[in-house]
């Protein structure tokens, strides 16, 4: 049993945003039926594999059922209609217009089943001048402004390390669907959710692009407090060419660190405007380059400063906190990242992802 036990979800999405969203529902007890083409979700073919299945696919599709349907055939269409009849949620991630051509857009589905909560996830929404523009995560980040501040010291944007637009869309879609489920309890009616990756990303810039939001200039990383313009929110290289970060700009942290480094005189600069802390940043760059990352970890151990070593994923996943909080599980010989959403009185147990058409 789970919070969403009794909720039935029909999932036509592939790759990342939709599957992530519906897996989070499956983790909480929803019945999720993943509708796949005969070749399956392309994520099934993404390396690396573990225990005969893509790690990517397993970690975004566990707990679901798989059913192959040819939605261009009459038999496939009828099978999908039969599934929708008693479903609560319908999720699709095709380019706008595809579902209408197949005969399953919101108007058609809701006309037969007005209780359905229909969620479409796309790059730029179902309508408007950008609706049919092809884009994956990085292109959306570029058009939303985020790539401009995903830059190095040379000011050149680099490929982002996190698919933020995909993840933002998945989380936004999940929130919207859960709201619609609650709303349906009051109204008895379903609803349509037009979830765009582009729209989902924009709220994430409120703390860095205030000037631009209010009609002014765009932020420049080197002069922005959260993007490299502040000494106590910055990345520093160590003697062994690894990295550490200072991740908290509060006065107490600055006082604790600079006092320990015998540079109390620089404390006022830590509170100066971003872009006006070059002397402090250069001092910290020089001092942090004198010890290895491990030596700095030991040095910081008894100091109340927002400090962290920059770890690769192997190092990150090997940390004690992963085991302590149960964040990685092994099931059927394969690793799974466990749900970030956990409830005190419910225990989540790892479960397999479906083989193609396993329950069809």
UniProtKB/TrEMBL annotation:
SUPFAM superfamilies: CoA-transferase family III (CaiB/BaiF). This is CoA transferase. Keywords: Transferase. Gene3D superfamilies: Crotonobetainyl-coa:carnitine coa-transferase, domain 1, formyl-coa transferase, domain 3. It holds the Pfam family CoA_transf_3. One of its GO terms (molecular function) is transferase activity. It comes from the Bacteria.
């Amino acid at each position: 049993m789970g919070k969403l036990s009794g909720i039935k979800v029909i999932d036509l999405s592939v790759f990342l945003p939709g599957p992530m969203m519906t897996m989070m529902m499956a983790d909480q007890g929803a019945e999720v039926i993943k509708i796949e083409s005969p070749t399956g979700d392309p994520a099934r073919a993404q390396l690396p594999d573990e225990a005969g299945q893509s790690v990517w696919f397993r970690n975004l599709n566990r707990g679901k059922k798989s059913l192959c349907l040819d939605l261009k055939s009459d038999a496939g269409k009828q099978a999908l209609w039969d599934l929708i009849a008693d479903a609560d949620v319908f999720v699709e991630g095709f380019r706008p217009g595809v579902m209408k051509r197949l005969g399953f857009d919101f108007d058609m589905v809701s006309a037969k089943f007005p209780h359905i909560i229909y969620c479409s996830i796309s790059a730029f929404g179902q309508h408007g001048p950008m609706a049919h523009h092809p884009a994956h995560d990085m292109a959306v980040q570029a058009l939303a402004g985020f790539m401009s501040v995903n830059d190095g010291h040379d000011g050149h944007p680099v490929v982002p390390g996190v698919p933020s637009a995909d993840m933002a869309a998945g989380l936004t879609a999940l929130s919207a669907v859960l709201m619609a489920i609650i709303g349906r309890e009051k109204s008895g009616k379903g609803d349509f959710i037009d979830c765009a990756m582009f729209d989902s990303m924009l709220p994430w810039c409120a703390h860095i692009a205030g000037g631009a939001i209010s009609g002014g200039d765009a932020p420049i990383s080197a002069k922005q407090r959260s993007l490299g313009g502040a000494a106590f929110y910055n990345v520093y290289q160590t003697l062994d060419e690894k990295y550490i970060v200072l991740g908290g700009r509060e006065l107490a942290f600055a006082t604790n660190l600079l006092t320990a480094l015998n540079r109390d005189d620089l404390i006022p600069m830590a509170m100066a405007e971003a872009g006006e802390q070059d002397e402090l940043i250069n001092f910290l760059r020089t001092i942090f380059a004198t010890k290895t990352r491990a030596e700095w970890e030991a040095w910081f151990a008894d100091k109340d400063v927002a400090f962290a070593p920059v770890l690769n994923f192997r190092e990150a996943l090997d940390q004690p906190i992963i085991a302590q909080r149960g964040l990685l599980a092994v099931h059927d010989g394969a690793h799974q990242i466990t749900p970030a959403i956990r409830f005190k009185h419910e225990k989540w147990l790892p479960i397999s992802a479906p083989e193609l058409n396993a329950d069809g």
